[in-house]
What does this fold into?
Amino acid sequence: MRITVTAAALLAAVLVAGCGGGGGDGSAAKTTDSAAARGSGSGSGSGPASGSAAGAPAETLGEAQLKSAALAGGDVDGYQITDFPVKPDGDSTARPADCQPLEDMRTASPDPGPEAFVGLLAFGGAGPTAGSATTIGLMAYDRSDAGGVLDGLRTALKKCAAYEGGVPARTTVAAATAPDAGDEAVAFGLRTRGDGEDAFVVVRTGATVVLFYTATGTGSAAKVPAELVTAQIRKLEA
It folds into this structure.
């Protein structure tokens, strides 16, 4: 199945608006990365590494550097990769406030905001990923703020099981197994009542945070394709 760029733009707007894919209940979304997860016993994410990943840029990157490090068409077999056609929208409030970091990541608008942002959309064209759409957001920070974004997500996953706000329905939260990628990673799923479950993987490598947000549009639980995570982090660290 091939998704056109026009359809891609429409789906991207849906993702950022938080509508997600349709469908019924299902199990918690999990990344498909086959590597063993590092970190906490909850399985929600890998903890900070003792040092930077090999080749990880430790300095704050500019927009041009992020664009150079971003995946492009032809980098990953089976995927159509385009520029992000809409801007992140951070005007969304979660109740209770403990869940806000998760809602912020859903809208690609973490707090604090990045110093530079580059967004992509990757569409699966064949096989089990056909019809899936993955938003990829590369976000440049200083090292301390980058680590703080991941810490905030881990704390939210320990305290937050569900929240209201952001979309006109209740959203439930499920921690997932994070991939062994970058310096540290967190994974989780968000399911809004009446919709399918979207999957999230957030990876820090050096001072850069990368968001992967997958929705299938089929009603089934989404999975972040491991090949996209691997290819993007490898290119960022090259």
In short: DSSP finds five helices and nine strands in the chain. The first strand starts at residue 45 and ends at 46.
